[in-house]
Specification:
This protein folds into 2 domains: 306 residues, Glycosidases (TIM Barrel, Alpha-Beta Barrel); 132 residues, Jelly Rolls (Sandwich), CATH 2.60.120. It has 10 helices and 18 strands. The longest helix has 22 residues. By secondary structure, it is an alpha/beta fold. It has an 8-stranded parallel β-barrel with strand order 1-2-3-4-5-6-9-10, surrounded by 4 helices. Helix 4 packs parallel to helix 10.
């Protein structure tokens, strides 16, 4: 009974050996490094990769030539003769946006949908015979174009008599949130702010109740406010993040609408326990609403904003205000189209293509974390240096330094570039706290602090070189770099 015929014994031994070899191969595959907490949610990652999104400020202020209405406006003033939300989507497409956000109600309290909770809405206007719904037309036009929808509902309401009565107004506001988040399909972003005039009535907003209601109604939505919880205000309306910009903050240190928090919002916090990346909101015109005497910013300014927002780990929220006819000015769409064409010109060609990549070290001897991953154009692959750092270093611990170097092929080594693109694999946390860029071993052509989702260095002048080395320092675990690119920006100063 205990014996085995030789042929079967040999076969059994071979099978066992094969299984053991397979098991050993699986065991020796190097796993990814531990995340450095906090890390983004899937919805936050999708938002970050959008890079450019669009805002549409339209409402009573459009017809009264103001920025902040009084709340005493006559709904009869709202009469856009040619409103066409599909044309608004043309503006968004011209800018390359994938998400569009509508101001459903501004501070004057006039609602762009026929709310059941107030008479101060499009229902009381002559537009569409009182049967119109801007929010409906906006959402339908966006989805027909393959764009995601966002909404802004101003907390400050200068019209409604309940404003100033804490319970009554918060109930009113929540009821309108419920209308917007249940009546218009999926909403990808909801916008809250703390804007309020100096002489406004004292009012306590129940933000936490609002946030939890939003989550209940739309589970995959991103909530924007000074302190998120998903996306934070960048601290200015110029479209400019800090030169140091962390996606992390401590939400406990932020009070929505409170003055004095702008710098903290602008730079973030390397010790932050909450992942709340910044969104840079700016209008293409001087005002948020359309004014006949204003024109759009020139291309040079829009590109400067892009480098200071998307190029500093943010998403750029560009506002394009429709005019009194209900259309975005053709001149504004032309500027947005010029802006997108310029970005395509700059970033459509990567002058690092064909390079070979080497690094100070590679996790697991290369494998799935080789230096070459920074050149493959994928978000889900990245270079990881070999390091004993476990991602949980204490304050004051030694800063680990690593480098990655691109060696350009002879065919492009002499082609100049003036933009260096670096991207972290932020799905496992933001890590880089300092970095420098060197060309052919000479003095650094760029140096800065954070990287995040994307860091763009626009150099003072084009440079040509065979090797480009990036030195990275981090005490929050080994840096995970998903991409390095080189580009030529012909629109930079001195290039035109």
């Amino acid at each position: 009974m205990g014996s085995c015929a030789p042929p079967w014994c040999v076969l059994a031994a071979a099978v066992v050996a094969a299984v053991m070899v397979t098991s050993l191969a699986e065991v020796t595959t190097t796993p990814p490094p531990l995340p450095v907490l906090p890390v983004p949610t899937a919805a936050q990652l999708r938002w970050q990769r959008r890079e450019v999104i669009m805002f549409f400020h339209f409402g009573m202020n459009t017809f009264t030539d103001s920025e902040w209405g009084t709340g005493r406006e006559d709904p009869a003033a709202f009469r856009p003769a040619a409103l066409n939300a599909t044309q608004w989507m043309d503006a968004a497409a011209a800018a390359g946006a994938s998400l569009v956000i509508l101001v459903a109600k501004h501070h004057d309290g006039f609602c762009l949908w026929p709310s059941a909770y107030t008479a101060h809405s499009v229902r009381a206007s002559p537009w569409r015979g009182g049967r119109g719904d801007v929010v409906r037309e906006f959402a339908d036009a966006a989805r027909a174009r393959g764009l995601d929808v966002g909404l802004y509902l101003s907390p400050w309401d200068r019209h409604d008599e309940r404003y100033g009565r804490e319970v009554a107004y918060n109930e009113y506001y929540l009821a309108q949130l419920h209308e917007l988040l249940t009546g218009y399909g999926s909403v990808s972003e909801i916008w809250f702010d703390g804007a309020k005039g100096k002489n406004a009535k004292n009012m306590t907003y129940h933000f936490q109740e609002w946030f939890q209601t939003v989550r209940q109604l739309q589970s995959s939505i991103n909530i924007f406010s000074d302190d998120g919880p998903d996306v934070r205000w960048v601290g200015d309306e110029n479209g400019s993040a800090g030169s140091t910009c962390w996606s992390t903050v401590n939400r406990s240190m932020i009070t929505i609408g409170e003055a004095g928090i702008e710098k903290y919002l602008n730079t973030g916090d390397p010790r932050g326990k909450d992942w709340v990346p910044p969104e840079c909101d700016v209008s293409i015109r001087p005002g948020w609403f359309w004014h006949n005497n204003e024109t759009a910013k020139p291309l040079s300014k829009l590109l400067e904003i892009y480098y200071s927002s998307v190029g500093r780990n943010c998403v750029l929220l560009l506002n394009a205000p429709p005019n009194t006819t209900g259309l975005v000015d053709d001149a504004d769409i032309a500027v947005l189209r010029e802006f997108r064409a310029a970005l395509t010109t700059i970033f459509g060609m990567d002058l690092a293509a064909g390079s070979t990549a080497t690094a100070s070290s590679e996790r697991g001897g290369g494998g799935g974390f080789a230096a070459s991953n920074v050149l493959d154009g994928r978000d889900d692959t990245y270079w990881v240096p070999a390091s004993s750092d476990d991602g949980r270093r204490k304050e004051g611990a030694h800063v680990h330094e690593h480098w990655i170097e691109l060696r350009r092929p002879p065919s492009t080594a002499g082609v100049p570039f003036n933009v260096v693109r670096i991207q972290e694999h932020v799905a496992l946390g933001q890590r880089v706290e300092a970095h420098d860029v060197y060309v052919d071993g000479a003095a650094a052509v760029a140096n800065a602090t954070t990287v995040g989702h994307k860091r763009l260095h626009r150099l003072p002048a084009p440079v040509a070189g065979r090797t480009v080395r990036i030195r990275l320092a981090s005490r929050r675990g080994p840096p995970l770099v998903s991409a390095v690119g080189l580009h030529l920006d012909p629109f930079a100063a001195g290039m035109m």
